[in-house]
Amino acid sequence: MSLNIRDDRQMRALTGLSQAKFVKILPVFAEVYQEEQQQAYEQGLAAGTRQRKPGGGQKGKLPTIEDKLLFILYYYKVYPTFDVLGSQFEMARSKANEQVHKLSPLLHKTLVRLEVMPAREFDSVATLQQVCQELDQLILDVTERPHRRPADNGQQRDMYSGKKRPYPEEYHHRQLK
Predict the structure, then answer these.
(1) Which of 55, 78, 114, 141 has minimal Cβ neighbours within 10 Å of its Cβ?
(2) Three-state SS for 162?
(3) Residue 162, by phi and psi: left (phi above 0), alpha (psi -120 to 50) or beta?
């Protein structure tokens, strides 16, 4: 692996976590990883497709659990292309893609188990209020998207926000002189 992290500042820059938080997450990630490996082993035995004992075969480019966690955290912090990610971790882009898709659910399970996974959707206003009750500050990150106007005039009036068009009319019909 080619990521050599020198200090806490570099660790935060590459993963978004301090070294102390990385060390705190690592045992839970390892536990989730082991559970998934055991489950895959048992499914292979039941299906009769298992060829080796757990731990057998090639070791791959991410041999340790630390490498695996660092890899997936780096991916989500930096969002490189699979070509860049593969180059950074000395693997083919297809293997980088494979590892991201294999490790992402494990990271999600780890964050849920640690109870640090942020809530994304709420089924009611009451649920949102309950979650936000203990917060001093709430920051919402939203994206405004244009949508088609209804054909019915009454519905158009209901949907009208009072905002101007995204580009003023004069930009659309400007003539060069």
Answers:
(1) 141
(2) coil
(3) left
Q: Which is nearest to 26 in space by CA: 65, 55, 60?
A: 65
Task: Evaluate whether 32 touches 112 at the Cβ level (below 8 Å).
Answer: no
pTM over 0.85: no
CB 154 within 8 A of CB 163: no
> Can you point out the beta strands (E) in 9-70?
none
pLDDT tens, 96-117? 999 999 999 999 999 999 988 8
> What tokens were used for 169?
């009319």
Give the contacts of 143 (CB within 8 A, at least 6 positions apart).
none
Give residue 42's pLDDT: 83
Length of the chain: 177
Angle between helices 65-78 and 8-15 (to 10 degrees): 60
Tokens 């497709």 correspond to 49
Per-residue pLDDT tens for 147-168? Answer: 777 788 888 777 776 666 655 5
